[in-house]
Design a protein that fits this description.
4-stranded mixed β-sheet; binds pyridoxal-5'-phosphate; 13 helices; 18 strands; alpha/beta
């Protein structure tokens, strides 16, 4: 069956034909590619068309697909058993491996998805502080838990509106949504409601509005405000964790803000290496609130799954090799600098940014600082670029608000082939 036939068939039995909305290509139009297999930097669809993959399963595949050591670890683990519902040594090893790289964390709880980890982190923050209100930022995605599917209200003093049907207004009444990188708004929020705020949750480098960095003074000020008012600072590193640096985005901010640490960190994607695995971590003191030690309940049948932890551990082992992130970062920069040069040569307004193996590009003159600016960039040009690249065998994220990912498996020749395609496509824009 070809992609179109599979999509038709899928729509009969799966809503929209997909199990996660962005896969449906609604933002860019056209037929989603049904992937048959993947190896290294490449994927092949149902029609055996080959693509250079810059999505990497939306971040996890930092080593590329089917890395031999990871594959071997997964096969060996599967032979030992799929799931036990009892503790295993491998969970301890993975927790130790995460804790070893992230100084803000003394303990982690493993779960199965970023949504679950983000939702549990919020519950832990609320339980630990005894407060209800949370702050999030427009354009940051923290999974699809009710309290986090919120957009800003009409004024700063008002709480947000649900962005999804089925989320009661009462459930988001404790969620305050502010503009990303807006210092005045966060100051005002703490001035008026500081004593009631349990936590501020942020994507430090927001990959769900393409690629937008939280400015250093913004992060520094949130840290100070949280400390002054007894609120917890939650870094959602589901996307950035072990992707932008071995120490994750928090290590990037710690370079600019001496001593900087978030209170709670949320991980997913890379720590599972492509298997369903995520985590949230913090200090022992805060973690004491979590069941079975404390009153904040959290649990999972498949949490710390033995096959998933094997995959995550093998991945972490590979990415901990000296020089891994230097090489990945250089490769990613070669890609985005090349894209920028190609756009400039064609006279197309374009700008780029990257950190480690995560990148973004925008059809506009200067890097956006918040969600509204991202959404005002040239969508029509983005869509034509996306389809032009796809036709030439380059698989980019099918929406202008998504980040891109480079893996260790991408070769210089892959980057050059991508740039050759980009030069051809920019010439048509
Ligand atoms: C920053 C961030 N947080 C949370 C999530 C939710 O993770 P999951 O899709 O594993 O539930 C995502 C997913 O893309 C994410 O990018």
């Amino acid at each position: 069956m070809n992609n179109a036939q599979l999509f038709e068939r899928a729509q009969q039995v799966i809503p929209g034909g997909v199990n996660s909305p962005v896969r449906a290509f609604r933002a860019v139009g056209g037929t989603p590619r049904f992937i048959a297999r993947a190896q290294g930097a490449y994927m092949w669809d149902a029609e055996d068309q080959q693509y250079i993959d810059y999505i990497g399963s939306w971040g996890p595949m930092i080593l590329g697909h089917g890395h031999p050591a990871v594959l071997e670890a997964v096969l060996a683990a599967a032979r030992e058993g799929f799931s036990f519902g009892a503790p295993t040594e491998r969970e301890v090893e993975l927790a130790e491996a995460i804790v070893a790289q992230v100084p803000s964390i003394e303990q982690v709880r493993l779960v199965s998805s970023g949504t679950e980890a983000g939702m549990s982190a919020i519950r832990l923050a609320r339980g630990a502080t005894g407060r209800s209100k949370i702050i999030k930022f427009e354009g940051c995605y923290h999974g699809h838990a009710d309290a986090l599917l919120v957009k800003a209200g009409s004024g700063l003093a008002t709480f947000g509106h649900p962005t999804s049907a089925g989320v009661p207004a009462e459930v988001v009444q404790h969620t305050l949504v502010l503009e990303y990188n807006n210092l005045e708004q966060i100051e005002e929020a703490f001035r008026t409601q500081g004593a009631e705020i349990a936590c501020v949750m942020i994507e430090p480098i927001a990959g769900n509005m393409n690629f937008v960095r939280a400015q250093v003074p913004f992060v520094k000020r949130i840290r100070e405000l949280c400390d002054q008012h007894g609120a917890l600072f939650v870094f959602d590193e589901v996307m950035t964790g072990f992707r932008v640096a071995l120490g994750s985005a928090q290590s990037v901010y710690a370079k600019a803000i001496p001593g900087f640490r978030p209170d709670i960190s949320v991980f997913g994607k890379v720590i599972g290496g492509g298997m369903p695995l995520a985590a949230f971590g913090t200090t022992r003191r805060i973690m004491q609130n979590l069941a079975p030690l404390g009153p904040v309940y959290q649990a999972g049948t498949l949490s710390g799954n033995p096959v998933a932890t094997a995959c995550g551990l093998a991945t972490l082992k590979e990415i901990s090799q000296p020089g891994f992130y230097e090489a990945l970062g250089a490769k990613t920069r070669a890609l985005i600098d090349g894209l920028k040069a190609a756009a400039d040569a064609a006279g197309v307004p374009f700008c780029v940014d990257s950190e480690g193996g995560m990148f973004g590009f925008f059809f506009t003159d200067s890097l956006p600082q918040n969600y509204n600016v991202v959404m005002a960039t040239d969508k029509e040009r983005f869509n034509r670029f996306f389809h032009g690249m796809l036709e030439r065998g380059v698989y980019l994220a099918p929406a202008l608000y998504e980040a891109g990912f480079v893996s260790a498996a991408h070769s210089d020749a892959d980057i050059e082939a991508t740039l050759a395609a980009a030069r051809a496509v920019f010439a048509t824009l």
